[in-house]
Structures are given as structure tokens and as C-alpha cells.
Amino acid sequence: MSQNTLLESVQGPEALRQMSRAQLKTLAQELRDFLLQSVSRTGGHLSSNLGTVELTIALHHVFNTPHDRLVWDVGHQSYPHKILTGRREAMATLKQLGGISGFPRRCESEYDTFGVGHSSTSISAALGMAHAARLKGENRKAVAVIGDGALTGGMAFEALNHGGYQGAAGLPDMLVILNDNDMSISPPVGALNRYLARLMSGKFYAAAREGAKSVLRNTPLYEFAKRFEEHTKGMVVPGTIFEEFGFNYVGPIDGHDLDSLVPTLENLRDAKGPQFLHVVTKKGYGYELAEADPVNYHGPGKFDPKVGIQKPATPPKTTFTQVFGQWLCDMAEADERLVGITPAMREGSGLVEFEKRFPKRYHDVGIAEQHAVTFAAGLACEGLKPVVAIYSTFLQRGYDQLIHDVAIQNLPVVFAVDRGGLVGADGATHAGAFDLAYLRCVPNMAVLAPADENECRQALSTAFAHAGPAAVRYPRGAGAGVAVEPALSTLPWGRGEVRRKGSRIAILAFGTLLYPALAAAEKLGATVANMRFVKPLDQALVLELARTHDHLVTVEEGCIAGGAGSAVLECLAAAGLAVPVLQLGLPDQFIEHGDTAQLLARCGLDAAGIEQSVVRRFGPPLSLVKPAAA
Ligand SMILES: Cc1ncc(C[n+]2csc(CCOP(=O)(O)OP(=O)(O)O)c2C)c(N)n1
Ligand SMILES: CC(=O)[C@@H](O)[C@H](O)COP(=O)(O)O
Ligand SMILES: [Mg+2]
């Protein structure tokens, strides 16, 4: 990039506020170029950010950030915001250990008013900020930017329902901006999407335009509406769903046109009460390859922008997600009761092939995890066999539904819980750290933690054959590389297996950390059990190992508090066995973004870390203990 560009002169948004419209347009071009170069070198969310370049510039130009609060939904589209708020150079460290996060974080910048990663929270948070400003007598605006995908999350509607309501607390001075690019990660689904498409088609407006004017005539809004019409390509229309919620709806306007965005935002900044601006953008805007394929450019790894994403020269290792996707198709072939469900994560959860082959038994329910779980419960009530493919971190959204709608009724729903454990670059908001703990405490739930690819397939078949709810939990990416047998065979229910016989110390491994545990055991001369089930726990195996060894070590890629190791402790306590136990797992802190292997090593969960922890606690293996000098 050449020296002394306009972008390089921007140390913060104040600089933008001095710029002419022409300069803002030049800045947009430079920002887009920088973004593409930068993300292509680090990997990260690309196409959403290419779509928010002009909107971000206009927002920081018009609003007095950070005094005015700007809240991004999900936050995966906040890179232009990061670049313009003093983090241009830090973009080289994006999502890396010690570098800046891929999402807004309050600890990273005063411009990041609210930490995000999960979707559909922005309107609630901005509403809270707007009401806080009212109560504290502070003159500031709160702005939420939410995508059309994130708007399908129920929380967004809960917030709209509250935001447009004039209770005793009064109406909030807030602005909700709908960034409508007609895309979620994959094409969006549902009636809301159809509704937005109708709004965008203009037909709705042609019909509503005159009616709108007459409704607004003689009200203060009429002049307001007229002003908007002069400045924007859209207009103010009552009667949209957003108006019914009590918001003043404006739009749709072109979100890449600064000549529309700036005056519209200026008017909205000065308006009182809840405002709603519908902005239309294109995901991947300005980079032809991303515009043509926004799905694959949603979150690419590193690539050369001149040629775009290329197939790797050597085929990558099979991922757990792929193992699940193949199993789902095979089991659907074998059992026509199977129904596959994803809350807006078709690609990430491995359901692309299933949708193609079994379209009638496939449901993408949108970003609606709570609904996904209860919808599955309904299907199960009628004798079908739902499989909810869901990321561990997003299942947190559906926890009450899992307890109240599935587990209490003991319904046979399979939860294919992907991204269990650390996820790497996305960091703490996306880590699947808590699932083993939050699932195993629920009565009726079975929880399986397969150690490798082949066992994952077996665990899925086992869960599917089970008469009650069962979760199979596996990590992001590839495992030990164990070949997957095509049979749909099951595991012995609630049984672990001893994988290595040693002495003195027994390591009880839950999930994929079996392999580093085996490597550590070679050095330690320890016994290793692959426990497979967190619940029902193989109590007989735990007690046998406790009786035949001096020390036990539990290993899991999940939070120590309440996790699988805690289950072992409970089992020993109930049997009255006082064997010293070392619990290894994720510490009681949120783990930052970074390379997964590096993070696991930091947590002491690689082979060397496990070995060191064991030696520190229980001493070196007897073979390494030097005999005392004669
Ligand atoms: C609760 C939750 N579920 C799922 C996701 C995964 N996710 C991240 S971005 C995204 C699509 C969001 O679509 P939209 O809001 O329209 O933004 P766009 O990517 O189109 O810019 C999804 C499903 C998430 N972050 N949070
Ligand atoms: C922003 C978001 O929530 C998703 O895009 C997420 O980053 C996907 O993660 P995976 O790469 O693990 O599918
Ligand atoms: Mg979208």
C-alpha cells in the first residue's frame, strides 16, 4: 500500500468528522482495499466486512463515537470499525494469540461498547444503554447494527418489543440499523427473509407511499418524512412490522451510497424516540470473488486475493464435522425417521450433503437455537428421530429448552454438539468449554465424548439408538486421523475401555485428549482409560482403576469445574474411596483467541503439559527415581 493514504492519516473517528463527502468516498475505497489485503493475510470474516465499509464510515462520521454508543451484532462485521478506531496496524495480529480479537471487546477499545460473538444481542444492549442515558440525564444516542440473519434470533424481537414501548420509563433515544444483505452465513431462510425481500422490492412502497403521506400529514413526522425523501432513496412508511413495534421505520436505502447514508443518519441522529433504518448492502461488496461466493468468503483462512481461495495441494485431514455429515446421511438412509436440524449453520455443522439428499427431512431454522431444540422435541413426541446439529457454544442459547422441553420429557433427541472444547481463532465467545458440565448435570441426559473419528461415528449411532436424549460432543477440526469404518455400529452403553496398561497412575481420558494422554503415559508408565461416556459414567471402571492404582488423573477439554473429572470425584466419594485425583482441564478463566494447539499447550493439555502436571503432583515415574546413594 502506498504511503500517506487518507486511511493512514486516520488515527480515530475524529479525523472522519472533518472529511468532505468526496474524501469519505476515497477513504471507503482505501479501507476496502486494506481490508481485503489484511484479511487475506490473517484469515477472518471477510464478506460481511466488505459489506459494512460505507456504513461504518458514515456512522463514525455522523455520530460522536464513543460518546454515542455503537453496538455491533455478532461483531464479525466490525473490522472496518476496528481499523477506523486506531487498530489499523493491529489488524496484522487479528485472531492470533496476543493479538486483537475478531469481535468487539470492551477491554480492547473504548469504541467497542459491547462485547459480542453470539448473535441477536445488539438491540437489547443498545436499549439498555439508551435507557441508562435517560436515567442519568446524559445526552447520547445508542445505535445497534444488526444483520438480516441475526434479526431472526428471538432475542432481537424481544428487544424490539420492549424498545418501541412507551412505559413509565419513556421512549429510548435509540437507532436500530438493519444491515440487510439477504444473507446469513448461507442464504437466509424463513418468512422474515421473504418479508424483507418484499420491502426491498419497492412494491410495498409503491402501494404504501401515498397512504403513508396521508397518515403522516399534520403530524410532526410529516415534515420529517419529507426531509427524508429529499435526502434518501427510501422513505418513511408506517405499517411495516417495525412500525408496529413502535419504531419509526426509514428505508430501505443503499448501504454503499454515502450520499444516501450520511444525510439519512444525520436526520436520524437528531430525531427523538426509537428509530429503525433499513440499509441494503451486498455481502462481499467490491471483491468480485466474495460477491459471487459470499458463503465461502464468510470466514476464509489465508488466501491470495489475486486468485482467491484455492483447493489445498494435499487433501486436508477429515474433520469431525465431516464424519458427522457422512454419518447423518448414512443413518438417514437406514432410518427414515431421522430429521436433521441446524440453527443457521448448514456449512459449519456439515449438513450440505444431507440437505441435498434429504431435503424433506432437513430444517435450517435460522439463528434460533431455542426454537431448534423445542422444534426437535415436538418432532420426537410424534415418533421421529431428530438430530440437532449445533455448536457447543450456541447450545448454551437453548439450555432451558434442552432441560424443560427435551430432558424432563425424556425425549429421544440427539444433540450433535460440534466445536466442543477450544475453537481457536474465534476465542472465548465461541469456545465450547462448558458443555460437559452443563449437560451432565441434567437428569435423563446421556453425554458421549468420543476420542477419535471412528469412535465419533460409533457414538452418534449409539446416541441415535438410545431411547432418551443424548449428546455427542466433538471438537472443531480433525482428530487423531483414525480411519472411519462404514458400519453403523454402536458402543457398549456406558462403558469405557482400558487403552494402555501401566502402574501406579491411571489416566482417565474423556474425548480427544485421549491421544496426548496416551503419549504422556508412555513417559509416565501410566495406565490410560478411554472413558467415552461422561454420563452414564463407567463407575465400575473408575472404581477398579482406583483400587488398582495409587493415583488417578482425569483429562478433558472442558472446564474443570463440574466437568467429567468432577463426575469421577463424585463416584469415588460415593464409594468412600479416598484416592488422590488430579483433575486436568480448562482453567476457571475465559480462554482467548489463538491457535488451538498453542492454547491447549498453554492450558497444559498437550502431551508434555499432562506429563509435567502429573510429575509435579505425584512425582516422577519410579523408573526415573534415582536410588539413594549407599
Ligand atoms: C447465537 C448465534 N448463532 C449462530 C451464530 C453463527 N453466525 C455468525 S454470523 C451468522 C450469520 C449472521 O448473518 P447476518 O446477521 O445477516 O450477518 P452477515 O453475515 O450477513 O453480515 C451466524 C449464523 C452466532 N454467531 N450466534
Ligand atoms: C461469527 C460466527 O459466529 C461464525 O462465523 C463462526 O466464526 C464460525 O466458526 P467456524 O469457523 O468454527 O465455523
Ligand atoms: Mg446478512
Give a written overview of the molecule.
The chain is of the alpha/beta class. The protein is built from 26 helices and 18 strands. The strands form three sheets. A seven-stranded mixed beta sheet has the order 8-7-9-10-12-11-16, with helices on both faces. The protein has a six-stranded mixed beta sheet with strand order 1-2-3-6-5-4, sandwiched between helices. β11, α21 and β12 form a beta-alpha-beta unit. α6 packs parallel to α7 and α23 packs across α24. The longest helix has 22 residues. It is globular. About 4% of the residues have low confidence. Magnesium ion binds next to loops. Its cofactor is thiamine diphosphate; Mg(2+). Homodimer. It holds the Pfam family DXP_synthase_N. It catalyses: D-glyceraldehyde 3-phosphate + pyruvate + H(+) = 1-deoxy-D-xylulose 5-phosphate + CO2. Belongs to the transketolase family. DXPS subfamily.
Task: Summarize the structure in short.
With 630 residues, the chain is of the alpha/beta class. The chain contains 26 helices and 18 strands. The chain has a seven-stranded mixed beta sheet, with helices on both faces. Strands 1-2-3-6-5-4 form a six-stranded mixed beta sheet, with helices on both faces. A five-stranded mixed beta sheet has the order 13-15-14-17-18, with helices on both faces.
Bound molecules: thiamine diphosphate, 1-deoxy-D-xylulose-5-phosphate, magnesium ion
From the N-terminal CA to the C-terminal CA, the straight-line distance is 72 Å
Number of strands: 18
- Structural category is alpha/beta
> In percent, how much strand structure appears in the residues?
5-15%
Task: Categorize the overall geometry.
Answer: globular
Radius of gyration: 27 Å
| Mean pLDDT over the full residue set | 93
Q: What is the tally of helical segments?
A: 26
Strand order of the biggest β-sheet: 8-7-9-10-12-11-16
**Mind summarizing the main beta sheet?**
7 strands, mixed
Uncertain runs are: 203-222, 232-238
Organism: Ideonella azotifigens
Catalytic activity: D-glyceraldehyde 3-phosphate + pyruvate + H(+) = 1-deoxy-D-xylulose 5-phosphate + CO2
Domain Transketolase-like pyrimidine-binding: 318-482
Protein name: 1-deoxy-D-xylulose-5-phosphate synthase
